[in-house]
Amino acid sequence: MMGRYHRHSLARAHRRCCVRFGHTHVLCSLSPQRYGYFPATCHVGPHWGCLLVTYFLALGPFVFLLLFVNELRLGLQVALFASMCVTTVSLTLVACSDPGVVFQDVDSDVEDGESAIVCAQCEVRRPFDASHCSDCGVCIRELDHHCPWTGKCIGKRTIKLFYVFLTCISLHCMLVGAACLVTFAAT
């Protein structure tokens, strides 16, 4: 049943926005391909509410520092702003790019000569390196994990972006912490 739904949805995805695959949504696709990276494709997962919380947690401390700390040095403000921008962009790239959804259509994601199985949950013919995510309701190539903080699965097409985001958010947190220490130690 789900396999027929995927085929119908894929045909519509090339013509218009807001197409549903499993529990995920392709909000827009400017790419002629069936998948892509943000901003050519905006593909969000089922936990978009948690993604909004992630944005708030990443941006909140920076905004707090700018609004309530008057003694913040200009160089530190610039570094914090740059860090916040890079973190926001990396989170958006992970959260809005296609993680590697296996679509069933005439040009199947399974290449010639590659072994495949039919997924029992979504009835999609998928390669052996793909796994079904029950949260997203689709099969994902090289599924690493389902991350509610990014709102979707981390798979073949988003794993490197995810590591970039983890690095950026870690550095951003350290920079915000250092700014707090420097500012409050000076007072």
TrEMBL record:
Its main location: membrane. Residues 118-185 form the Palmitoyltransferase DHHC domain. GO terms for molecular function: protein-cysteine S-palmitoyltransferase activity. The chain crosses the membrane at residues 48-68, 74-96, 161-186. InterPro entries: Palmitoyltrfase_DHHC, PFA4/ZDH16/20/ERF2-like. Belongs to the DHHC palmitoyltransferase family. PFA5 subfamily. This is Palmitoyltransferase. It comes from Peronospora matthiolae.
